[in-house]
């Protein structure tokens, strides 16, 4: 009898998970933060019903779960309420940290905002509940720390379309520094304004990487409901530009990853040392929402002649992250 019980336990422990036990993740505008040998994934909520942001964790990028500390089906790291700015439209989060604090930059009410916490898992709150810049609508914040310790906030502003902007950022008071606001660029390439889903020109979802003294700005173009929503990149010698768009853009596109609406995510270095980009794709060929989360390896190669790195997504090895109990 004991042998039978042990055999049953063995089968149960090592049996493959069923389709009901595994399910796709529906974070749009996703980001992945790497810390302590684990990955932490958050993004714009799709079917999760969260007025704010929730988080999942993984050690292999393939299977994800609610952090054990949560003890629930959803772990919210920021929730709508009196301690955080915004009551709707919680989009495009970014997690980062300093020596003393964890930060969450995000969009709500079509304004950028910054909350902080002593723990990666939150809750993230604001001492002063306010947006970063209330003078104009601005979304999709990405806060970048340069080698000299200065911070810059890359983001999107509206003017009959979406345009990428940057400003030096005062992390101490959560504001952009006066006189530093600079426009990066708007749509100018054919792939950035295809006729599939007519709209004003749209540039969004900035992420910045610095390598060997040069700045690489990754961004998405086209309306997110267009099947041609895609990711390209530009290079500059300065955090303010001028930016040179790279001719091998887009590097993430339906022709590369075989799914429509591929874009608006974040670059990160995996535990294996590999560079990855996490992004969203359309739910199906018929509709965009809710958007599905994807992860793709990104290859980096030095171009000796141009003196820049070239980036290409490995569309043959796209990861479909799944949530497990």
Automatic annotation (TrEMBL):
Note the superkingdom of the native organism. Bacteria
Q: Where is this site: Important for catalytic activity, responsible for pKa modulation of the active site Glu and correct orientation of both the proton donor and substrate?
A: 140
Q: Which GO terms describe its molecular function?
A: hydrolase activity, hydrolyzing O-glycosyl compounds
Q: Does the keyword Transcription regulation apply?
A: no
Record key words, sorted: Carbohydrate metabolism, Glycosidase, Hydrolase, Polysaccharide degradation, Signal, Xylan degradation
Any idea which residues are catalytic in this one?
29, 204
Q: Which PANTHER family match?
A: ENDO-1,4-BETA-XYLANASE, PUTATIVE (AFU_ORTHOLOGUE AFUA_2G04480)-RELATED
| Name the record gives this protein | Glycosyl hydrolase family 43
What organism, scientifically named, is this protein from? Sphingobacterium allocomposti
């Amino acid at each position: 009898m004991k042998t039978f019980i042990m055999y049953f336990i063995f089968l149960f422990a090592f049996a493959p998970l069923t389709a009901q036990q595994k399910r796709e993740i529906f974070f749009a505008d996703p980001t992945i933060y790497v810390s302590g040998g684990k990955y932490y994934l958050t993004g714009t909520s799709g079917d999760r019903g969260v007025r704010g942001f929730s988080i999942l964790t993984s050690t292999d990028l393939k299977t994800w779960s609610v952090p054990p500390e949560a003890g629930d089906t959803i772990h919210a790291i920021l929730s709508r309420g009196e301690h955080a700015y915004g009551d709707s439209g919680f989009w495009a989060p970014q997690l980062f940290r300093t020596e003393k604090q964890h930060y969450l930059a995000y969009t709500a009410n079509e304004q950028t905002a910054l909350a902080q916490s002593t723990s990666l898992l939150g809750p993230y709150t604001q001492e002063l509940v306010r947006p970063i810049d209330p003078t104009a609508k601005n979304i999709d914040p990405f806060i970048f720390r340069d080698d000299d310790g200065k911070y810059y906030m890359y983001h999107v502003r509206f003017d009959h379309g979406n345009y990428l902007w940057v400003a030096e950022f005062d992390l101490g008071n959560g504001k952009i520094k006066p006189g530093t606001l600079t426009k990066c660029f708007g749509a100018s390439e054919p792939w950035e304004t295809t006729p599939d889903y007519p709209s004003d020109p749209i540039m969004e979802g900035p992420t910045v990487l610095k390598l060997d003294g040069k700045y690489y700005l990754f961004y998405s173009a086209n309306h997110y409901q267009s099947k041609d929503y895609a990711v390209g990149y530009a290079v500059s010698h300065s955090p303010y530009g001028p930016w040179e768009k790279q001719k091998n853009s887009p590097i993430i596109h339906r022709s590369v990853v075989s799914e429509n609406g591929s874009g608006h995510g974040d670059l990160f270095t995996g535990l294996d040392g590999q560079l990855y980009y996490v992004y969203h794709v359309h739910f199906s060929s018929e509709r965009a929402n809710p958007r599905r989360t994807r992860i793709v390896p990104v290859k980096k190669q030095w171009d000796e002649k141009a003196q820049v790195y070239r980036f290409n997504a490995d569309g043959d090895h796209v990861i479909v992250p799944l949530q497990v109990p």
